[in-house]
Design brief:
Elements: H1 2-16, H2 20-27, H3 31-36, H4 46-53, H5 56-79, H6 85-100, H7 113-123, H8 125-140, H9 144-161, H10 166-183, H11 187-192, H12 197-207
């Protein structure tokens, strides 16, 4: 039985690597997006770039696919795999790890938020709803990065208050840590640009930005129609 549980958990990592943004970008032949995407900053996150290069609709499609992969796999693990709570929690963490740290198409890997949403909608739906509302408020007030951090931090706290199993509380905290670590990638570039290391960590960890918060939500970006036009 333990080997079956381990197989389901390992499958969570593989499921998390499903490259939604890469598939959409390839389907749309968005060569500018594919070349510009990177792991070193939130500004080069493929979901954000997709909104700018292809429009919010295509970015929303890729994000939805990422949510669905987390949702479906964790739901299947619970209903068909009959995993106990601790193994479900581990599977949920590994889905997000796979999304953020895939073994292929690494430049197109996300920050973990969409896959996290799918996992939490199955295991911690109330907590995810509160987190989502906080992120929406951040989008409206143009403080998306900070609101996302607050929303993520609220999940383990609300889960504990709600009396959720300890393994699910630990899962929420672990996923929050994975996303924060993922945000810190490329912080060295920010420091080398002249920013104080502590300030750079604050920008990247709390605001998911390489500099002072820009003050606008991702969906404020309109596609320019220029980035993926072949140049002579």
């Amino acid at each position: 039985m333990a080997w079956t549980h381990l197989a389901w958990a390992a499958g969570g990592y593989v499921a998390g690597t499903f490259p939604s943004t890469w598939i959409v970008a390839r389907a749309k032949r968005a060569t500018g997006l594919l070349s510009a995407a990177g792991r070193s900053s939130g500004e080069t996150d493929p979901h954000i770039l997709m909104a700018r290069h292809l429009g919010v609709g295509w970015s929303a499609l890729a994000a939805t696919l990422d949510v669905v992969k987390g949702f479906v796999y964790v739901l299947a693990s619970r209903e068909w795999g009959n995993l106990p709570e601790a193994w479900l929690a581990l599977t949920g963490v590994l889905v997000v790890v796979g999304h953020s740290y895939p073994f292929y198409a690494r430049r197109m890997a996300g920050r973990g938020l969409a896959a996290m949403a799918g996992v939490f909608l199955v295991l911690l739906p109330v907590e995810m709803t509160i987190c989502g509302l906080l992120i929406v408020v951040g989008g409206v007030t143009r403080t998306t990065g900070l609101a996302t951090t607050v929303g993520l931090a609220s999940v383990p706290v609300v889960a504990a208050v709600q009396g959720q199993p300890g393994s699910f509380v630990a899962m929420a905290a672990a996923i929050f840590a994975v996303i924060l670590i993922r945000r810190l990638e490329g912080m060295g570039d920010v420091v080398r640009s002249g920013t104080n290391p502590l300030r750079a960590a604050l920008y990247r960890g709390v605001f998911d930005s390489s500099g002072p918060p820009p003050g606008h939500g991702v969906w404020d970006q309109e596609p320019t129609g220029q980035e993926d036009v072949p140049r002579s």
